[in-house]
């Protein structure tokens, strides 16, 4: 029996063209100030050198492929660095940005099309553009798009996104949910809490909006992949189920217990704890968990296969998560 390739669905590319596009534009300084306020000076002092040290892996396909070989990874699903979202941009700039990001990501992946598959971006802050941006990404040969957990003033449950969810479901596009920033702001501005607490919180809030609002009822065929193992939500669904069962306001938007929707979603394996990974496999199903590394950032893992092996899954589940599930997901019907 042929074993599937090892597929990492959580890997990033840095796009200098996007940053050049927004440099100096009105709103850029305020966005940087907000990012600085949310992260705090200590985190920013570490982030700059960390990213600079990884520019070759983030921009040079040859360096990326060599690193993949060292990790035992056959295929990466490459998404733009979330720092490229720039949800502060106006419609004209946002149109240029998503086109540039989609085309640059596709060009990066074309260096090794058999090993690098890509995702594009959509401007969440302008919902009316989302379907057009998704179409552009698919036209470039990308498999879908990466989105954040929210846009300013809009949650993913906002009805304005319904055309996007409909089109993503119709096309079989992958939607990769990867937060950037956290709305808890200065409460997390020390000890890198903006990431260690903020990212799991943002994942959990975004997924809860999709579940409780009925988005997943209306679009059961969505191929939605949640980064960071879905944050806190998958291992704390008992409280959500209890609320749904006892409170009419919690039950108003979705037809089934919240935990049942975990088996309609996909999750990457990047939880940094083998016990949590085992629990994620238990509650979501081994067929709904995909290998993820957050390549090449410091909050990822340099040995994604080793991290998966540490969970002690059965052989069938190990190989499903290592690559079988993702191989099926990346092959569009």
Automatic annotation (TrEMBL):
Q: Which UniProt keywords apply?
A: Lyase
Does the keyword Lyase feature in the UniProt annotation? yes
The family database entries (InterPro entries) matched by this protein are listed as: ACMSD, Amidohydro-rel, Metal_Hydrolase
Q: According to the lineage, what is the superkingdom?
A: Bacteria
Q: Which Gene3D superfamilies match?
A: Metal-dependent hydrolases
- Indicate whether Phosphoprotein appears among the record's keywords: no
Show where the Amidohydrolase-related domain sits: 7-330
Q: Mind telling me what this protein is named?
A: Amidohydrolase family protein
């Amino acid at each position: 029996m042929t074993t599937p390739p090892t597929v990492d669905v959580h890997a990033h590319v840095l796009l200098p063209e996007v940053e050049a596009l927004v440099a100096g534009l009105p709103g850029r300084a305020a966005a940087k100030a907000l990012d600085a306020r949310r992260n705090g000076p200590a985190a920013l002092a570490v982030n700059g050198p960390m990213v600079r040290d990884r520019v070759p892996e983030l921009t040079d396909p040859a360096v990326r492929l060599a690193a993949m070989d060292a990790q035992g990874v056959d295929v990466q699903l490459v998404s733009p660095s979330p720092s490229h979202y720039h949800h502060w941009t106006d419609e004209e700039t946002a149109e240029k940005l998503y086109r540039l990001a989609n085309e640059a990501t596709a060009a990066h992946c074309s260096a090794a099309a058999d090993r690098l598959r890509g995702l594009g971006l959509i401007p969440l802050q302008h919902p009316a553009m989302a379907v057009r941006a998704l179409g552009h990404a698919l036209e470039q040969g990308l498999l879908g798009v990466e989105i954040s957990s929210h846009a300013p003033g809009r949650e993913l449950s906002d009805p304005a996104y319904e055309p996007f969810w409909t089109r993503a479901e119709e096309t079989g596009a992958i939607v990769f949910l990867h937060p950037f920033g956290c709305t808890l702001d200065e409460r997390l501005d020390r000890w890198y809490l903006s990431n260690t607490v903020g990212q799991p919180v943002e994942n959990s809030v975004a997924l809860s909006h999709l579940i409780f609002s009925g988005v997943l009822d209306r679009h059961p065929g969505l191929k939605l992949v949640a980064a960071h193992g879905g944050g806190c939500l998958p291992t704390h669904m008992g409280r959500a189920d209890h609320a749904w069962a006892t409170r009419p306001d919690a039950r108003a938007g979705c037809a089934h217990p919240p935990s049942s929707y975990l088996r309609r979603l996909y999750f990457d394996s990047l939880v940094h704890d083998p016990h949590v990974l085992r629990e994620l496999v238990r509650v979501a199903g081994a067929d709904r968990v995909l290998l993820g590394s957050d390549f090449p950032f410091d909050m990822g893992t340099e040995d994604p296969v080793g991290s998966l092996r540490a969970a002690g899954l059965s052989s069938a589940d190990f190989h499903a998560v290592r690559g079988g599930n993702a191989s099926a997901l990346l092959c569009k019907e």
